[in-house]
UniProtKB/TrEMBL annotation:
<comment type="pathway">
    <text>Amino-acid biosynthesis; L-isoleucine biosynthesis; L-isoleucine from 2-oxobutanoate: step 4/4.</text>
</comment>
<dbReference type="InterPro" id="IPR036038">
    <property type="entry name" value="Aminotransferase-like"/>
</dbReference>
<dbReference type="Pfam" id="PF01063">
    <property type="entry name" value="Aminotran_4"/>
</dbReference>
<keyword id="KW-0663">Pyridoxal phosphate</keyword>
<dbReference type="GO" id="GO:0004084">
    <property type="term" value="F:branched-chain-amino-acid transaminase activity"/>
</dbReference>
<comment type="function">
    <text>Acts on leucine, isoleucine and valine.</text>
</comment>
<comment type="similarity">
    <text>Belongs to the class-IV pyridoxal-phosphate-dependent aminotransferase family.</text>
</comment>
<keyword id="KW-0100">Branched-chain amino acid biosynthesis</keyword>
<comment type="pathway">
    <text>Amino-acid biosynthesis; L-leucine biosynthesis; L-leucine from 3-methyl-2-oxobutanoate: step 4/4.</text>
</comment>
<dbReference type="InterPro" id="IPR050571">
    <property type="entry name" value="Class-IV_PLP-Dep_Aminotrnsfr"/>
</dbReference>
<dbReference type="InterPro" id="IPR043131">
    <property type="entry name" value="BCAT-like_N"/>
</dbReference>
<dbReference type="InterPro" id="IPR005785">
    <property type="entry name" value="B_amino_transI"/>
</dbReference>
<dbReference type="InterPro" id="IPR043132">
    <property type="entry name" value="BCAT-like_C"/>
</dbReference>
<keyword id="KW-0028">Amino-acid biosynthesis</keyword>
<keyword id="KW-0032">Aminotransferase</keyword>
<keyword id="KW-0808">Transferase</keyword>
<dbReference type="InterPro" id="IPR001544">
    <property type="entry name" value="Aminotrans_IV"/>
</dbReference>
Amino acid sequence: MYSYYNDNTFLYINGEYTKANAATTDLYGQSLHYGYAVFEGIRAYKTASGEVKIFKAKEHFDRLKRSCELIHIPYKFDNEELIAACYKVLEMNNMEEAYIRPLVFCPPNMTLKAASESQILICAWEWGAYLGEKLLRVMTSSYERPNPKAFKIESKSAGLYVNSILASQEAKEKGYDEALLLDMNGYVAEGPGANIFFEKDGKIYTPPAGNILPGITRATVIELCQELNIPLEEKLFTIPELKEAEAAFFCGTAAEVIGLDSLDGQPFGKPWAQSLGKVLQQAYKAKVLGKAFHREAQLA
């Protein structure tokens, strides 16, 4: 089992820094019993200048606050202070590259009433690309993304991730690397914890907001398409349409940008090394590391 902390690991909880193995929580909290919590996944990188930088820290903490607001969890924290706490956690743990996990959770309450107060945890650990480095064999999941009329799906809520666990486990039990979920209307939505893009005829496509978690890495990929003059369209599409794509990829903070080998056993036609996804993968890596990126040099 992966060890996320040891006897020397520090974390931040409710304004204080403490050893991870000394931290405690109440067993009667709403978050534990009902999944009533929100979280973020953030990455820190050692940049080309040698400085440790947290990528899009403001955007992540803005979303953390917005997620709490959407599901009625009080958010009385100062985001600038929380970002500073993230850097302090990295420093105390001697980490230069790490995955950072802020979690807003709720105190004891066995009712289904909205929380009247909340607490916050920030921890970090060293974590490679979540889905690995090799191209992924993906299957269409039998599970759908939750109906947006039943849940605030744009909130990065802890309880919502049971859906992702079910889909991902189903895929692995059937011999695939990961799942791809549809929305309630049969359109492609996203992977468990990752957004999807595909390439066809020199253009990139991705599902629009509405039935997906609009990821921060997704927004970064869209920005990169604009910077690199790669045409991009947000549109609804089906599995048969996706299977006609030349290439496809997942993206997310944990996964970064990772190409798909096949969908339901059908390979994509274009070699990943020649795809726009590969260009965007390299451009994303350059961006988080603070390096210049020139598309022409990658294609030479």
